[in-house]
């Protein structure tokens, strides 16, 4: 694809303001006004961040969405839908119930889209074939690069597609930018990277997981490219993210970046945040595929100046051992991005929500990746992922050494027999170490890990996780999971 001819109209605006609502409006005006993007009667789909039932900044700032809906309506938009797929196994209905999203958006004149149809799951006597029919009616099957994706028809059929992305730090990609946001327009099942190659050490050393992930993200992005992109970094979660973790810090920048091409908009956002384009593989690969340009000179930049508004953010740690959990040592062998990402989230989740639990359970070793180092002074060993389990099969910690002391004979004995007795006094035996918790998967699923941790340490030793599990049961119940499976979503 000839980038100069196809993307010569790439336009990006950097705007600064006092509050998010007016900053968004200023951004749209700087780009030429909303009527440049929306025509009378257009059906609009607004894709935003909605990963779990928490508020901003894990999810998009609702003030920004409110402002955008009002603007689209003023421009004469017909129907306005909003939605996104959350993390695996969490139904959209459960998030809507916690955050009251349906009513909130209805009052603004828009419609919250239950992309997984979970609002209908509680309908009396809904049968498997009815769910399958519903799935067929609400999703389109789209094949890209020989991969099949289920995409909600409401997104495909909309005249205009807008991505409103909350920018936060991200352990794999440094930052959550709009290309990543687009990924959750398809169900979690189609976001997963399946591999049977964990036996193949090349898979890890070449980080094929990340390559496949990037390829998948761009496949999804190319299904429906947004007409308007908003990278909201008015507030940005730094140090630890993209969810709210104990080490996270919220930095106020007062800035938003808007554009008509996601690659260009993400590129300018990276420049503003002092991240080298070479360090952001998603952008490079998108450029290779002809999805956008990476030469800032070819982008029309309006609004504020990049250099004068330069922002420095603390990125996520690049080594798992730096997450520093009380009573835990983390030994990381060679990992691919799959285990790094999942272990990063699990360790941060434990650090954030299991403070008492960590205090009550001393001396734990968390081993991840291929050939992690032998742990020293531990009571429990957690093996995270298939690679850690497989490559430590013959490690010393797999066996415990037991020294038996024989009681010496009471009879009077000669010097020679006393010496022999001394030699036989200690006997060493090896037993399989039972204090090992294996968390299988390539990479492991976090919800499954929490269940296994709970079972291994026991309810009495995990007051925080016990509470968290009760909350998770409300969000992720087995009956709903089964229906999501029938729907083809997980
Ligand atoms: S087990 Fe983890 S480190 Fe090994 S290949 Fe799978 S995801 Fe990568």
End-to-end CA span: 35 Å
CATH architectural label of the largest domain: 3-Layer(aba) Sandwich
Bound molecules: iron/sulfur cluster
Given the C-alpha coordinates, what overall shape results? Answer: elongated
Helicity range: 25-40%
Low-confidence stretches: 1-5
Question: How can the largest sheet be summarized?
Answer: 9 strands, mixed
- What is the CATH level 1 assignment of the largest domain? Alpha Beta
> Strand content of the residues, in percent?
15-25%
Number of helices: 19
Structural class: alpha/beta
Average pLDDT rating: 93
- Number of separate strands: 17
CATH fold-level topology of the largest domain: Rossmann fold
Oligomer: single chain
**Number of separate domains:** 2
Rounded Rg: 27 Å
Explain what this protein looks like in three dimensions.
It is a single chain. This protein is an alpha/beta fold. It folds into 2 domains: 3-309, 3-Layer(aba) Sandwich (Rossmann fold); 320-406 and 422-457. It contains 19 helices and 17 strands. The protein has helices spanning 3-6, 20-30, 62-74, 92-99, 101-107, 128-138, 153-156, 178-183, 201-205, 208-223, 262-272, 281-288, 337-353, 355-360, 386-391, 415-425, 446-457, 463-475, 478-486; strands spanning 11-16, 44-47, 80-83, 111-112, 139-144, 147-152, 160-170, 174-175, 228-238, 249-259, 300-303, 328-332, 364-368, 380-384, 399-405, 426-432, 436-439. The strands form 4 sheets. Strands 1, 2, 3, 4, 7, 8, 9, 10 and 11 form a 9-stranded mixed sheet that branches. A 4-stranded parallel sheet has the order 12-13-14-17. It has a two-stranded antiparallel sheet with strand order 5-6. The structure holds iron/sulfur cluster (SF4). Residues 198, 203-204, 209, 335-336, 338-339, 369, 385-387, 442-443 line the site of iron/sulfur cluster (SF4).
